[in-house]
């Protein structure tokens, strides 16, 4: 009689094979490694030769021999099956999934869908009316977006709170939007004019075809190195890492004082626009990720090991980065923030760049619910806010150098 460890009992059923190939379809794989071929198999350690050939594991991106690997089906598009090679270590990861039906849902849903609906105008207006400590920051954002306002205007602090609260979020003011707010005679007129400017904010919508994300085609270039398949892998290597770290090091104490009302407002705008749990500005140093700005009231002193962070992977490409459901991704499902109590499974990040276009920080958002897609307007707003943050950060750096 065959025992329970006999190979016949370890074979997957037909439904399990379908689920696995769709699971593989959800993962990002390596087809062209950025690393040179090693001399020995990562699994058995045997040296490669003309007789003992090397094969690339498309899952981890490392080199293995034929006996230490196998060929598996991959279904990234429904009913379109391709074949990939996986080392036996990675097969154990691919044989685990929580809900097979989700693979079908994500396979049939685009990353970005067309929609011009935006939240930023209402969020700016509500913040202006209700949050005294953020009003100068709102005017700074309005000025960056092309509105004729003075963020340092003294009259802001002379307007009574009752005037702000009394202003409706659907105000109808007869003054033209380009009028000089200082020429308005009463506080009520000034309040209504500023609220009106919030609703006149226009964000150019990025065309659907230009809303691109790193790895959205299911491929990546970096390898995954892990000691235990049930634990997070090491953080991937980042292009120009030494230069990036040197730039952050030159910022010095600036990175410890970025949680200003302006940066807090930008984070709050992102969280509202994407309807997510929270948004942050992060910087990733040698082995640690730091939160440098967060929405008002949110803690901004948290630090994570680099290998435990989404941002370590976002840095691997200059493009925006999105994880639609981390619990389904072999790279992220073992992170503490995913499998722990917070259960953060959605992540999106846009690069914050220096004057040379190098990524020095990330404007990112997280949520406890998966997001199959975002809209073209959400992409556009976040792209604009990331560019705004880059501009403000560079201005701070320039002021400190003077």
From TrEMBL:
Any idea where the GAF domain is?
264-388
In terms of InterPro entries, this protein maps to: GAF, GAF-like_dom_sf, Znf_FYVE_PHD
Superkingdom, natural source:
Eukaryota
Pfam families to which the protein is assigned, alphabetical: GAF (PF01590)
Spell out the PANTHER family in the cross-references.
GAF DOMAIN-CONTAINING PROTEIN, SLR1143 PROTEIN
This one is known as GAF domain-containing protein
The source organism is Pythium oligandrum (Mycoparasitic fungus)
